[in-house]
User: What shape does this take?
Amino acid sequence: MLGGVQLGLLAACIVLFVPMGMAGWHLSRNKMLFFSGALFISLAIGVHLTPYIPSVSDFVTTVSSVVVFDTRASCNSQLHEVVWEVKQSDEFNPLSNNSVNYEKSWKWGRSAPVIVCDFQKFDPMDAADLLNGSWVVVAGDSQARLIALSLLDLILDSQRMGAIRGDLFKRHSNYQIVIDESGMKLDFIWAPYASNLTDLMAEFKLNLSYPDVIIMGSGLWHMLHFTNASDFQLSLDSLRRSVVSLIPSTPNLDSEAPLTGSISTRTPHLFWIGMPTLINSMLNTEEKRKKMTDLMKVAYDESLRKSKLLRSSGGPLLLLDIETLSWNCGVRCTVDGMHYDGVVYEAAIHIMLNALLIESHQKL
Ligand SMILES: *[C@@H]1O[C@H](CO)[C@@H](O)[C@H](O)[C@H]1NC(C)=O
Ligand SMILES: *[C@@H]1O[C@H](CO)[C@@H](O)[C@H](O)[C@H]1NC(C)=O
Ligand SMILES: *[C@@H]1O[C@H](CO)[C@@H](O)[C@H](O)[C@H]1NC(C)=O
Ligand SMILES: *[C@@H]1O[C@H](CO)[C@@H](O)[C@H](O)[C@H]1NC(C)=O
Ligand SMILES: *[C@@H]1O[C@H](CO)[C@@H](O)[C@H](O)[C@H]1NC(C)=O
Assistant: This one.
């Protein structure tokens, strides 16, 4: 018995290859186009028959999800095509030769596949609009805190940010803010280990309340305090299980609401904050320099890949690739080889917002 996915792929192959095969049999180009068109129309009729024949329904859903998946995947893979400009500032002070003396900016590259996707930097109004009424949870270690800061920095004016910065950066504590104008709620949850994130997922499930957007990440603390990549992978494996068990239960939330054609409207959008590039010689303690080596970083990245937590390996979370962003911004963008300047996390926020935009377009 063929599964839905195989049938979907088969249909895609028929539309693609049957007309091509015909062309091989010396059909004219017009006839070939006609043949493609006819197949396409048959599929379209299939769509209208969908409600009446249950087995066709599965089949057609699979075909359309293959097509949707294709455009979404192609722009998602371009999201990190960011180019940096890092230059010496006018008031360069050779006595304090550090990141403060350099001005940084970024934009998306101009290669054809990137241009097609038409990514945009969000202004505060657009960002507030997109997140209007949403519950956003940012959970993790200091990298996550910097992500939360960048998101608020984009939406709120600098006067309000001054007050927030102090509260948000109280060591090892949670933070919550509700932005009245747009009804957005943001929770920062201090969760330095993957096991803390797993606990958090369990709490959402227990409470039957699910955020609209979850942005989380973990790794640096484990690397420093356990320095054991296979143990890290075990903790990611159980995080993956808890995230996956969260997803199918969410659509039930809206079971009274009218079906809008997209059952997954209430599924949380899930992002993973990747570990930054570590510049070993700049790390600020002997212990960090000894334990957080390039080799260990490679092993931790490998554990993440093997855990299949990320979409790139078939998992549920889309990677915000801080490693690539920080690597490309470079040594002038960090003072301690681990925490980078705000501009790096700002780029990650715009990448996330564009990913949200891609997903919501697919659903309209
Ligand atoms: C600043 O420091 C970098 C290394 O971190 C060095 O390559 C560069 O020459 C220094 N610039 C000045 C003006 O001292
Ligand atoms: C958010 O949505 C509400 C209604 O859903 C609307 O009244 C309000 O103006 C929106 N705010 C922004 C900033 O778009
Ligand atoms: C995170 O997990 C560790 C290890 O399981 C635990 O000791 C710590 O209390 C947890 N922290 C938070 C904030 O839940
Ligand atoms: C779960 O519900 C309790 C009680 O209402 C609340 O204090 C807690 O913050 C909730 N947890 C999460 C993760 O939403
Ligand atoms: C690393 O973690 C694994 C799994 O928890 C454990 O079996 C192994 O003994 C640990 N290795 C070291 C060197 O502690």
